[in-house]
């Protein structure tokens, strides 16, 4: 991972840019579609940003030397969320068609 810290748009803001490379292995590397891989990368980046924000806020409010907890990224939950969202996206058009047929 590569991190860059830059001045933000406002004087009291800082911009953190993160570049990462992901190496896929196993089944995901063999059969993973680009859209699924991109969704996984997006969600990992979002969780990273949420965890970093939480940690910075807790650190600012904590007394010196007190421990700060940050949740782990749960890979299984991440994949389940993506799979369920994709299934819902695929099924929705069929459900809409069935509803229209029943009304006719």
TrEMBL record:
InterPro entries recorded: START-like_dom_sf
Gene3D superfamilies noted in UniProt: 3.30.530.20
Listed name of the protein: Uncharacterized protein
Protein source organism: Mesorhizobium australafricanum
């Amino acid at each position: 991972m590569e991190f860059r810290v830059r001045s933000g748009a406002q004087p009291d803001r800082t911009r953190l840019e993160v570049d990462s490379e992901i190496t896929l292995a196993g089944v995901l590397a063999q059969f993973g579609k680009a859209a699924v891989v991109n969704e996984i990368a997006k969600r990992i980046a979002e969780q990273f940003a949420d965890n970093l924000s939480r940690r910075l806020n807790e650190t600012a409010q904590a007394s010196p030397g007190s421990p700060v907890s940050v949740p782990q990224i749960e890979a299984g939950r991440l994949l389940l969320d993506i799979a369920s969202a994709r299934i819902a996206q695929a099924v929705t058009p069929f459900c809409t068609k069935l509803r229209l047929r029943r009304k006719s």
